[in-house]
Design a protein that fits this description.
The chain contains 42 helices and ten strands. The strands form two sheets. Strands 1, 2, 3, 4 and 5 form a five-stranded mixed β-sheet that branches. Strands 6, 7, 8, 9 and 10 form a five-stranded mixed β-sheet that branches. The chain is mainly alpha-helical. The protein folds into five domains: 84-310, 2-Layer Sandwich (Beta Polymerase, domain 2); 318-472, Nucleotidyltransferases  domain 2 (Four Helix Bundle (Hemerythrin (Met), subunit A), Up-down Bundle); 479-586, no CATH class; 606-829, Beta Polymerase, domain 2, CATH 3.30.460.10; 831-983, Nucleotidyltransferases  domain 2 (Four Helix Bundle (Hemerythrin (Met), subunit A)), CATH 1.20.120. The protein is elongated and about 120 Å long.
Length: 985
Amino acid sequence: MTFTETTCLSDIETSPIRPLNQTEAKSALSDLKDIARERPEVAALLASDSVLKDFIIAAFSLSPYMRDTARVAPDLLALAISEPLLPRIHQAISDARRAWDPALYADTSEAAVMTRLRQAKRKVAFLTAMADLGRLIDGRQTTRFLSDLAEAAVSAAVDHLLLAAEAGGKLKLKDSARPSEGSGLIVLGMGKLGAAELNYSSDIDLVVFFDPQADVVIDRIEATETFARLVRRLIRIMQERTADGYVFRTDLRLRPDPGATPLAISVDSAMLYYEGRGQNWERAAFIKAKAIAGDIAAGEQFVRDLTPFVFRKYLDYAAIADIHSIKRQIHVHKGHGEIAVKGHNIKLGRGGIREIEFFVQTQQLIAGGRMPALRLRATEPMLVELAKANWIDEATCQELTEAYWFLRDVEHRVQMVRDEQTHLLPDTESELKRIAYMMGFADTAEFSTALVKVLKTVERRYGALFEQEAKLSSEGGNLVFTGQRDDPDTLETLRKLGFQRPEAISQTIRTWHYGRYRATQSVEARERLTELTPDLLRVFGQSKRADEALLRFDHFISGLPAGIQLFSLLGNNPRLLTLIFNVMSSAPRLAEIIAARPHVFDGMLDPTLLAELPTRRYLAERIKGFVAGARHYEDVLDRLRIIAAEQRFLIGIRLLTGAIGGKQAARAFTHVADLIVEAALDAVRREIETAHGTFPGGRVAVVGMGKLGSFELTDGSDIDLILLYDYDGSAATESVGPKPLDATRYYARMTQRLISALSAPTSEGVLYEVDMRLRPSGNKGPVATRITSFAKYQEEEAWTWEHMALTRARVVCGDENLAAQTEATIRHILDRKRDVAGIAKDVGEMRGLIEAEKAPKDLWDLKLIPGGLVDIEFIAQFLMLVAPARGAALPEKAFPTGEALAIVGPGQMDANDLDTVEEALRLYTEISQIVRLCIDGAFDPKEAPAGLIDLVCRAGDCPDLRTLEGEIKRLSKAVRRIFLATVKV
């Protein structure tokens, strides 16, 4: 049936759709009866036994949005069933275009304009949908009506805003009766809007420029802000939801560098951007660009001026790989794989609308520069032109055209259901049946068969176009770094590879080839690096911060003493190259460590690195072997710094790659600290004995507290220590040596030297920051404590929080007898039967004090958030302190918090609560280990490298950050509840 000026819904001879089911049909009929009380036209319809009545009931049963619209605006339904449709649709579009005009309306306030545009949108959308479902029009007319409305609405909003800006003293227009003419304000419709192919519930993509030469801005200095403010109001007019709904959701992200540019950009700045930095995807986007509002003449000229950028003079076969890489990325990021029906993405999925569009656009990019006929915006006309030019055959043209409009029909019906901007088919049988019926199929099986046939046709044609994909994708383009000036094609290649500042990257690589670094001074090293460069750029270009990652690599090689071994290794070991990339792109802290101390990289040359677990024995052999060759005290300390940095780095690499998990990393970091403290204590003791002699019967033990004591260190953790000593008081009161000291000064001197050995900065950095505030009396007490004083203090003076800390105390190194005595003393203190209520009160008060003094910064402050690590640690410590009074099991020595909970929790906690706490602890541990490894300071998703976001999600075993945040909120809320219940705060 031809859609003419006189076509009405009553012209439908047989309803092409059926009700979803009897329940929905009865509900639709009930709503129609309600409407009939207000509208006699609807009452007459219900009194009839007509095809139109059946069609309306079916339409409303299938589309809740259509039914809601009819209830809100019953006059629209009355109009639809009683008058010709086309004149009403055209009139509504015309009304939208003049919604700003003071010659037609007394009220031209922004609110009034917004209301008129929304009413026009509702009318056009409703009447178009009814005509579409009734098969009075097809997808071509549907998209045309919706696109014409969008153009009209944007044009009216812009005219209104220009007049408002003039009234506000910001602009001086050429003609207030035609505000946009000569204004220099260019509004381009992009994508489906530019091609007049809008979806039923489409966003509209706009790009806005302004020409300062139009001379309408009163203060030229304010031009950018004036037009940017205008665009912000334009977005509000178009997409803000009011009682009348919205007009179109509006997207301005196709403008140049949207993260760093204002909403409106000057024409000159835009041209400089596209000529110097424009990407192939932007070329593809501008194929469909159309001046739709504002200064149409200026907009059309701008589009013409961009023609050399969009359509190259020579056949551009290289662009096909770049455009296809965009499509590949869509599949990867959106997760659309094999062809399916339920849940399939009609737009982005295999065989979908986007593949047809890319099929057309790649031909246009390749040949449009030489063949002006291939510069059309719309998809179907372009398929026809491609066939005429013999770029495709007639069969391909016909198949893709039919497939395109079939898929567009499906897309429209998916969106008609609830006016949602979605392209996903329902994943349930009942909802899929709704779409099948809206398409006119008898059942879902018939619809699925037809859809799969179309999708496979598209995939086959699209696949044939890219059958040379592998070959093309491997051709990176020019990479020439000779001479003093940048090679333009090389800069373009770098852009395509993902680098934002190709000139800086080009200059950096020229530095390598000039041999200005020690690592690149030899001819052989430079040759190896030249061979490695394309792979290096390709791997680093995959990062969202490619430039930053590559510059960190540059900083790294600038510090290498030699390069040929490394460059050869990287060239022959893609795994290692990827590992370097992972560090540079996701772990700024590790990258800085590599740059500052390149020797840590030596351990990565071990091919068994990721296969070997960093056990205590494994680490002890390497640390002992490396320190064994030291000739004097300072040499020992330097070697300890070197080997500690290397082993911590290699543990970090294992964690980064997933070879070990957070719990294993924590234990390994703790083993390194134990071994380093032990080696440092031995060196310090020898130094003290050389200067002051030995102390008769003297013994020393170092106790690790906090996370050191409980095997829970992260990379970069401080370490909490207490130095205990004892001696034979009956044998002597001073040390026996050149400069004798009494016991207090002797062991205080030893402690101070130990702290200095660990934390004093040298050319090799710092081993550990040392905290000794957990010793008896804290900072007011002596730095070294005799074991008898320690025992007495813990028995008589220590506060509850000090006994809580004692639950994590562990002898790290020292004299075996003193270590045994210390452990017995700690065990004796913890075995005491305490007043449970009093301990609960103390623990609750301490947690409250921490919350008052150290409020968490945000959700990612996993230590301090309510229900975070502190709560979990306090639960474990509380249960350990009250275990003897309750007759519960008590660990014989310090364990990680999770293992301690597994011992003291049963019998004191509900089993489900214990599982929840352990689950939360695992999650927090995994995330904390990764974050502390990769960055200094707090984790901020807005600032974190893209690679780190991925690592954090992997650590939390979640597909994305939003899901992970939900898990943290769920678990922290549960842990806080359990903490309050356990401690009874």
